[in-house]
Amino acid sequence: MRSLAALGLLVPLLAQAPAITPDESTGRRLLARADVAAAVESLKTREPSTIDDQVALSQIPAPPFKESTRAEAVRQRFAAAGLTDVRIDRAGNVLGTRRGRAPRPHVVISAHIDTVFPEGTDVRVTRTGALLKGPGIGDDARGLAVLVAIARALAQSPIQTAGTVTFVATVGEEGLGDIRGARHLVNSELAGTIDAFVSIDGTGLDITATGVGSRRYKVSFNGPGGHSYGAFGTANPIHALGRAIAAVSDLTVPASPRTTFNVGRIGGGTSVNAIPFEAWFEIDLRSSDPAALADLDGRVRAIVDRAAAAENARWGRTNQVTATMTVVGDRPAGATPASAAIVRAAIGATTAIGEHAQMREGSTDANAAMFLNIPAITIDGGGRGAGAHALDETFDTTDSWKGTVRAFLLTLALAGA
What's the Cα-to-Cα distance from 399 to each of 169, 203, 204, rounded to whole Å? Predict the structure, then answer.
């Protein structure tokens, strides 16, 4: 962990942070200022450059747990934008600071570096008019490009903020990364110093203030294995796995609070004529309500135990097939109240650009901050996207400047411009 004194953040650990007091009118009031209006016009004019950054970053592979090449590209952009104390932390996050008149309020603006796509995926981006196509072009190359654009706009403007802004490109937001970068930020790198946390993730202009919790397991069934003919009658781990998945697929879950389950990967066995000694699947359980998530978790555990027992009973065996559940992801649920200043400021920034934001739920880096009761939200990065997590993901750049400008106004509002 870096020295907090080196970041100018030692005093806030010992003193109460000043209140963050923006509201729905803050964005409009900011736009009425000549310096802010000039910066906004510059952002609009430079949106094609922001889109170029989006394409360039999207075309740098960033598979799960292998984000370093794209991280270095972001680090270089942070440094060129004039941020100070630009660095890559122990987790792999890229950080840069824009100091205000005081260390607090301390605002973190973030986007994530990683994608869901494995190593070797063709990440080239094609352009057809306003439409960009390529895996990860919206999620979250768009967020990274907006992050860099805000940093550049502040560097090129005389605008001063009362507090300090830390720009962060995080690792491990997707899949089995389990928001490890954001967890490291709030629990270690910037622990105890964050007054507001904003993640820029996805496309459109919505606001996420409810963090959906998730639990992810690798469920393994193990047995002695054997020849499909000679050892027939031996309990079969894949058969037990099939029983479990069939039972999971028949589960009923509440529509409100929204609660979901998904078996996303499956594997096992060595040959068509061999009883396998191992079979496994990975399952994702989600809910915005911790109690509903805990209930679903308990029911899945019971299903797994029953599946192993049923497979053993089918062949008159005892404990021949065994089952284990290994946690591979655990994102806490959380929420930032609609009355919170950070939510009101985001709504105000959206209204200031002539748009109306929908409030929604999601599982993002902001969950890590929400869990610690840090005021936190996720905002979309503008434009219109489709096919997130698909190889043919698209991003329509029409009026995408609105996402850039909104994020800029929100940053100013939270940092006390």
Answer: 24, 12, 10
